[in-house]
Amino acid sequence: MLGQCIQQALVHWGGWDEKKAGDPTVAILIILSVLLTSLGVYDKFGQWAGAGSAVPVTGFANSMASAAIESRSEGLVLGVGNNMFKLAGCVIVFGTTAAFVVAIIRLLVCGG
Amino acid sequence: MLKGHQSWKFHRKPVIAGTATVVGPFEGRGPLANDFDIVHGDSLVGQDSWEQAEQTYLEEAAKLAIRNAGLTNDQVQFYVGGDLMNQITSSSYTARTLTIPYLGVFGACSTSMESLAVASYLVSTGGAKYALAATCSHNSSSEKQFRYPTEYGSQKPPTAQYTVTGAGAAVVAEAGAGPVVAAATIGRIVDMGIKDPFNMGAAMAPAAVDTITAHFRDLGVGPDHYDLIVTGDLAKVGYEIACDLFEKHRIPMHKTRFRDCGMMIYDYGKQMVQAGGSGCACSAVVTYGHILKKLRKQELRRVLVVATGALLSPLAVQQGESIPCIAHAVAIEAPQAAAD
């Protein structure tokens, strides 16, 4: 819903058309999520909002930002670099795998 | 000395000569705030990492307990301690600072009473004149190690518990003034097959009941022997299960006051802690802060503290293992009650 508001605002005031406003909307949501995470507010918001905060792109951004902040004490390369995808890694692995499988099914069923 | 199957009854009762408790800002907003020696306004206490902060809490508590007992570091023979960090680093690094000969123990959240029982045994048998028992935990370092990054916005179930940030330490002496340790019961592992790390109260409750029952059997006493029996960190969920189990085993717990440290330390109305408090520091700061104060003032005469621990590791949980649990009980008496 928040995303929809941002998108509508961009269409109204930013002069974007509905289709093009999608990308900057996602970018704003990501920035907002990372900002709230670094301010230490997102975890409290998450307890209240539940799946609403976790499912969209904001949850993904939060999982990466929180893991990065947490592992700062272990160094930039081995700490932040290694642990950033600690929670988000599985989303990427299974997201890619699922996309691959769906693409093959589509190829077989629809014949490309 | 050995009494029954798994208990020690101390004939030369070791004296708790000095204690100290240090807690974080969140615990400082709880109902027991006035019972703690130091309440920090910053949970990171000016350190670079949560782990270093946890160690700082422990160092402060240990040094203050030694000072409160009127001693210096070199007069204390042994330091018995443990914590929740991997390889109990908080305790080992504190031992490096204190330079007191060190015995590391691990009983997860039961470490507070495990270390006090071992220290009391050492002193009672003449193995030491003074022994220090101390433990600590930190909410953020525990979240990081056992759950998710602290800023990760996951939703916690109502059975989850909030790890207490703080440290508690006690100096046990051969003689002197103060509350005494009368007996201790070492628990055995009880595992009822619970695999949910967000429901540790339910996993630990049977262990607490097992140790309390064993304590009564070994020492030939009933619940009415104590003014107060407290469990470490069962919190709401585990506490209710323990009450049900006592009723099933027909143990008349209504003859005493039965409480839980995890339910005493926070204000459920104002603080979002789900089921209640947990962590090594939970039973340590409530016992060494709140309960010992009441024993010194003779408001309580005999107390049985039963610290409960869930001996899980994130790796074991991921591999589908259930959670083995343990509870250690220590009976502490006011000076007057001990003389009777």
Describe the structure concisely for a colleague.
The complex is a heterodimer of chains A (112) and B (340). Chain A is globular, with a radius of gyration of 17 Å.
Textual characterization of the structure:
The complex is a heterodimer of chains A (112) and B (340). Chain A has one domain. In chain A, helix 1 (2-14) crosses helix 2 (22-38), helix 2 (22-38) runs parallel beside helix 5 and helix 5 (57-70) packs antiparallel against helix 6. Chain A is 77% helix and 0% strand. Chain A contains seven helices and no strands. The model of chain A has no long low-confidence stretch (mean pLDDT 84). Chain A is globular, with a radius of gyration of 17 Å. By secondary structure, chain A is mostly helical. Chain B has two domains: 2-173, 3-Layer(aba) Sandwich (Peroxisomal Thiolase, Chain A, domain 1); 180-335, Stage V sporulation protein AD (Peroxisomal Thiolase, Chain A, domain 1, 3-Layer(aba) Sandwich), CATH 3.40.47. Chain B has eleven helices and 15 strands. Chain B has helices spanning 25-28, 50-68, 89-98, 111-124, 139-146, 200-219, 235-248, 261-264, 280-296, 314-318, 335-339; strands at residues 2-3, 7-9, 15-23, 38-39, 78-83, 102-104, 130-137, 162-163, 166-173, 180-185, 228-231, 257-260, 277-278, 302-310, 325-333. In chain B, helix 2 crosses helix 3 and helix 6 packs across helix 7 (235-248). The two termini of chain B are 19 Å apart. The mean pLDDT of chain B is 96.
